[in-house]
UniProtKB/TrEMBL annotation:
Gene3D superfamilies: 2,3-Dihydroxybiphenyl 1,2-Dioxygenase, domain 1 (3.10.180.10). Keywords: Lyase, Metal-binding, Repeat. Belongs to the glyoxalase I family. It is an enzyme of class 4 (lyase). This is lactoylglutathione lyase.
């Protein structure tokens, strides 16, 4: 998205990265470098594991984790966001959006704990990766990050679940469910307990937009 007259954004401290799955991270990293891109971590296995990863940064400062995997139906494999209370955030996304906790891992060497949530195996769909950095309870968010959009079969019922979760765990509804003027696609939006914005979009309406 480009906003008129804005040529620079502050990404803040809370946004982690977008994860991109690829069958050959070594080749992808070389391709990025050949086109003038910035590789901030050269390809290689993760510490203590075998998964090959690399990190890249685009001209606007957004970070990308390049993750080597076999052929995947969803190349955009994860979105990482920083949270101040991991247990609270996991409960929120389970209750508000019906996500499943796919895995959780504490990494003492790097002083953080991560939790991955989603609706299917992380190798088959996009996962939300939440990271808690030891002792960090809040993050500056800047003005660059916009939102995560998720499809739903019933915006109204989804908004009810979100409302219950916000009353228990924090966050708030920003836009009550209903159609957008002009295009009639039904949406609702909210922020989670850490202030990250999520938009729920009626799946059938969105498919009509694409026709």
């Amino acid at each position: 998205m480009s906003n008129y007259g804005v040529d620079k954004y502050d990404i803040g401290e809370g946004f982690g990265h977008f994860g991109i799955a690829n069958e050959d991270v070594y080749k992808l990293a070389e391709n990025i470098k050949s086109k003038g891109g910035n590789i901030t971590r050269e390809p290689g296995p993760v510490k203590g594991g075998s998964t090959v990863i690399a990190f890249a940064q685009d001209p606007d400062g957004y970070r990308f984790a390049l993750i080597q995997r076999a052929e995947t139906p969803e190349p955009l494999c994860q979105i990482m966001l920083g949270v101040g209370d991991l247990e609270r955030s996991v409960k929120f996304y389970e209750k508000a959006l019906g996500m499943n906790l796919l895995r959780k891992k504490d990494v003492p060497d790097y002083k953080h704990t991560i939790a991955k949530l989603g609706y299917a195996d992380e190798h088959k769909t996009t996962a939300l990766e939440l990271i808690y950095n030891y002792g960090v309870t809040e993050y500056s968010k800047g003005n660059a990050y916009a939102q995560v959009a998720i499809g739903t079969n019933d915006v109204y019922k989804s908004a009810e679940a979100v409302d219950l979760a916000t009353k228990e765990l924090g966050g708030k509804i920003l836009r009550q469910p209903g159609p957008l003027p002009g295009i009639n696609t039904k949406i609702t939006s909210f922020v989670d307990p850490d202030g990250w914005k999520v938009v729920l979009v009626d799946h059938a309406d969105f498919l009509k937009e694409l026709q």
